[in-house]
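The material for today's practical consists of a large collection of protein records. An example says more than a description, so a record of this kind follows:
***
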Amino acid sequence: MAFTEPVLTKRIDLDPAKRHVHWYDEYVATGGYAMLRKALDMKPDDIIKLVTDSGLRGRGGAGFSAGQKWSFIPKEKKGPHYLAVNADESEPGTFKDRYLIDYDPHSMLEGIAICALATQVDVAYIFIRGEYHHEAKVLERALKEAYEKGVFGQKGIFGSGHKLECYVHRGAGAYICGEETGLLEALEGKRGWPRNKPPFPAIAGAFARPTVINNVETLCLVPPILERGADWFKTMGTKSSPGPKLYGMSGHVNKPGVYEDELGITLDYAINHHSGGMKGGKYKAAICGGISMGVLGPDQLDIKLDFDDVRFRGGCLGLGTAGMIVMNEHTDMVAALRNCVRFYAHESCGQCTPCREGSGWMIKILNRIMDGMGRARDIDLLMELEKTMGIMPGTTICGLADGTSWATRTFINKFYEEFAARCPEEPMVQLTVKRGRSNVATPMGSNTRG
C-alpha cells in the first residue's frame, strides 16, 4: 500500500475557493480529538513507543526521529516540563506549516496535547513567525475554543489529572529563531542567539528545564499514527523515511502551492504531477527543501524526495522542509546564489565569526561578480570560504553557516560554467615597474612595490 488518500490535508479542500478554517465543532465532527481521548488511557511510554515504531521523522528540516526525541525527556519529573512548537517558518521557499495553521489548527493542538501526555509537559508554547499575522489570530481563536472545551487549562485535559497550559508566542521576524536553541532564547525574552550544546534541550531547554521541540507538521501527524498504527504509517514512503509529507512548490511551475504525497516521490513527479509542469522554459535546477539545503542540478530529476536520497545522491544537506523552488532554463544561477547569500548575510546573528564574516565576504564577492568585475580567483575565494564555515568544520554553534556554505558549494559545483563566464582570467597588462635595476611585466592588480 502506498499513499492513497490525504492524511495531513484530509480536511482541506483541493479547490482553493472552498477552503475554510475547521474550527472546534467541525474538527470534532470529522474525528478530531478522538485520539487525544484514546491517549488519556495509554501509558506515556506506550505513546512514545508507538511514535518511535512508526519511524516518524521530524518534518522541520533535520529529519530526526520524533519518538527518540520524546524518549530523551527524563522520566523522573523534578519540575516543570515544556513543549516548544516551532512554527517560526522562515526558511525561504517554505510555507507548508502556514497551510496547516490556516485551515486545520486543531490538528496541531491535538498533537500538542498527545505529546504533552507522553512527555509529562506542563506548558506548551507555540512560537510562531512574527510575519504570520493572520495565522497568529487563527491560532488564538482555536486555542480559545480548546480551552473552553477542556483540552487545555487547570481542570486537566478533558477532566483528567494532566493539567496543560498552551500559549501563542509571536517571534520578531528573525530567521535564526527557527534554530531550536535560538527559539528558546527568544522565548525567554532574550536575543535570539543559538546556544552551545550540550546541554541539549531535552535536559536543559526552556527556562533550564526539560523541553521537547517539535515542528507543526510533525505534531499534526501524531493523531493519525495513534488512530491507524505504526504499520499503517510505514506503508507510505521509504524504509528509512516513512509516512506522508507536505511539499511546498514554488518558482517556475504552473501551479505553485502545497501538495501532500508520500516521501520518496521523485522530483520529476512532484513538478509534473503536482505542480503542473514547468513554466517559461525547461527545467534547470531546484532548491529541494529551503535554500539552506543546496540546489539540485539539471540531471537530477530522478532524485527521490526523502531524507536520504537527496543527501547521498543529490549532494545537498538533505530534504529539509521540502519547500522546493523550481528554476527554468532562463534562470541566472549567479544571481540566484547572490540572493541566497544576501539573505544569510542579513540573517546571521553575528555570534560566530566564521558565519558573520564569511557570509559578509561572500556577498561582497558575489556583488562584485554581478557588477561585471568578477575575477577568476573570486570563485576560488568563494569555495575557500564555504569550506571553512559551519558546524561540520567545527567552527560555529548552529547550522546557519552550513546553509550558506552548502548553497555556495552546490551552486558553483553544478553550474560552474556560469560562474566562470562571469569571472574571466585576469588580463596580463604590460606595466613597466622598476624593481632595483630590473624592469618586469606584472599582471594588473599585483603588488608592485619593490
